[in-house]
Design goal:
Layout: H1 11-14, H2 16-39, H3 54-71, H4 75-92
Helix pairs in contact: 2-3, 3-4
């Protein structure tokens, strides 16, 4: 079986791994920002959230989840926990 050199692949296939990594890191930074709002109070939150409310729990889990995503560790379990929480929050409306 012969392998095709990477330089012969179309551009989307050639840079697929790098683009997935870049998207994971950017999304991780967005999650870390929400987590820092809840954990450290910096940067100032657009909307404050009680720690025991759904938005508060999401923000509380966003810091460790975002860090794990940026490092590429446990990406599927982190997304399986955070994605339904964000979906429920979006469907129920802002608090």
């Amino acid at each position: 079986m012969s392998t095709v050199p990477r330089s012969a692949l179309p551009i989307p296939q050639r840079f697929a791994l790098e683009l997935e990594t870049l998207a994971r890191i950017i999304f991780g930074f967005l999650l870390v920002r929400h987590g820092m709002e809840q954990w450290f109070g910096y940067p100032a939150a657009f909307a404050t959230a009680d720690p025991l409310s759904l938005p508060g729990v999401i923000k509380f889990l966003s810091l460790p989840g975002g860090l794990l995503l940026m490092l590429g560790l446990y990406t599927r379990p982190v997304c399986l926990v955070l994605a339904p929480l964000f979906l429920i929050h979006w469907l129920t409306g802002r608090v």
